[in-house]
From TrEMBL:
This is Nucleoside-diphosphate-sugar epimerase. InterPro entries: NAD(P)-bd_dom_sf. SUPFAM superfamilies: NAD(P)-binding Rossmann-fold domains. Keywords: NAD. PANTHER family: EPIMERASE-RELATED. Gene3D superfamilies: NAD(P)-binding Rossmann-like Domain.
Length: 291
């Protein structure tokens, strides 16, 4: 029997961890990239690689996608829209071997709730341009399911962290900051729990479904940095009021929204048991693993 084949548009941090999980199970994996150097890197790992970018669709989409049973889209929309939808929608609609497809979105589509909890049934009220683009991309992917039967699932991810991309790493490299904005909380999710959620969805496919992927403990960012410093045995950086922090426009934009994200659905419908239900568990596990 031929092994299932995952095709990834945009093998970034989360998508790569997921792909590695499936490869360990014997899956075949293909992915897109934007440069010849990255293509060579992927191929050296045993991944079929294909060039793709805005203005550069797959050269031979039928050949690249042939045999694909599962699809993951991890490329964010740009100012023109979703590049995968805009350039490959027809090819995906014609892909008869496809059993499951996932789109990695963001909990930013909910906008600011003043700290209230939101479920997947909440109205989408994005506050920034990047989040508005995500809402449009979600609509496009769900439209591909409704119109052509592409078995799409949406995953709204909270703030992603894990080895190489955590408060432990930022404390070690000296970039960690403690910014205080009273009442502000952020939701997070460990990259391994994202991969586990996607895997659980493959086992229990429900095309058209939307899932929040977040841990159990929304928290202020400065508490995460404090815990990382405690684990590393170093003094935390000074606590700076938000209005004096002199953040970049991008960094400040993350403080524009405050919400708590419910994760009941992935537990109830997919049977997900989070390996890292809060940032403490995730950071402690990273340190224990020597990462």
């Amino acid at each position: 029997m031929t092994a299932p084949r995952l095709f990834v548009f945009g093998p970034g941090y989360s998508a790569s961890v997921f792909a590695d999980l499936l490869r360990a199970e014997g899956w075949r994996v293909a992915a897109t990239c934007r440069s010849e150097d990255r293509k060579a890197e992927l191929e050296a790992q045993g991944i079929d690689a294909f060039l793709f970018d805005r203005g550069r669709p797959l050269k031979d989409a039928r050949a690249a996608l042939e045999g694909t049973t599962h699809l993951l889209v991890s490329i964010p929309p740009d100012a023109k829209g979703d590049p995968v939808l805009d350039q490959q929608a027809r090819d995906l609609a014609d892909l008869r071997t496809l059993e499951w497809a996932g789109y990695l979105s963001t909990t930013g589509v909910y906008g600011d709730t003043g700290g209230d909890w939101v479920s997947e049934a909440a109205w989408l009220k994005p506050t920034g341009e990047r989040q508005k683009r995500r809402v449009e991309a979600e609509r496009g992917w769900l439209g591909l399911y409704r119109q052509y039967g592409v078995p799409m699932h949406l995953f709204r991810l909270a703030g992603i962290y894990g080895p190489g991309r955590s408060a432990i790493d930022s404390v070690r490299d000296g970039t960690a900051r403690r910014v205080d904005k009273p009442g502000q909380v952020f939701c997070r999710i460990h990259v391994a729990d994202i991969a586990a959620t996607l895997r659980a969805s493959i086992a229990r496919p429900t095309p058209g479904a939307v899932y929040n992927v977040a841990d159990d403990l929304p928290s202020p960012s400065h508490e995460v940095v404090e815990h990382a410093c405690r684990l590393l045995g170093v003094e935390p950086p000074p606590l700076v009021p938000f209005d004096q922090a002199d953040l970049s426009p991008m960094a400040a934009s993350f403080y524009a929204d405050c919400r708590r994200v419910k994760n009941d659905r992935i537990k109830r419908q997919l049977g997900v048991a989070l390996a890292y239900p809060d940032f403490r568990a995730g950071l402690e596990a990273q340190l224990a693993a020597g990462l």
